[in-house]
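Continuing the series of single-chain predictions for the mutant panel. This is the parent chain; the variants come on the following pages.
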Amino acid sequence: MGVTATILASDLDRYWPLDLRDPPGVFTQWRIRALAASPDQCRRVLARSGVEVRAASPRPLVGGCGYVDGVVPTAASIALDAPPAMRCAMAAAVAAWERRVVEPAALKHLGSKLAEIRHFGSYSCRNVYGRATGRRSQHATANALDVAAFRLADGRTISVLGDWSDGGARGAFLRDVRDGACGLFAGVLSPDYNAAHRDHFHFDLGPFDICR
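Parent structure:
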């Protein structure tokens, strides 16, 4: 995200404030990704959208790992079990996805409200797939989140591992939340991508664009 794009995003927010509770539009993903270059603006968007966070202890970038703009959402703001530290822009994307994609899909397909999103974490200083060599994973800069399952208000749990192949409402719910994520995150990987993602969805904010 270049300087010009960041300035344009800031100007746009002045006249058309971004609220993560609003239905996603064609520019929503771009505007969320632009927040990565402006942590102060990102925190203003979170506050405007009713997302409470605390600053995470910074991890200066060393060897391709670390972050300086990390936040930890409150459980009341984002329904993650044990909310992890993540980059501010990732928190914004997760909040928008939960509110505008996951919650409506749970009611539509399963007739219950969402209670909790279970995850495998955000920050992890490692390479892609944990290999000894190669490029760093987006997890290495807390620019990603792995989601494993969803607990509903009625007590049911829908998991990627157990329900992705379901031909009924559970499978339809999981596909809706995967497809809806593609309009908010840059990278969206599911069991359709490869066996390494058979038990979770991987979401990140780029730099690569993929939805599968």
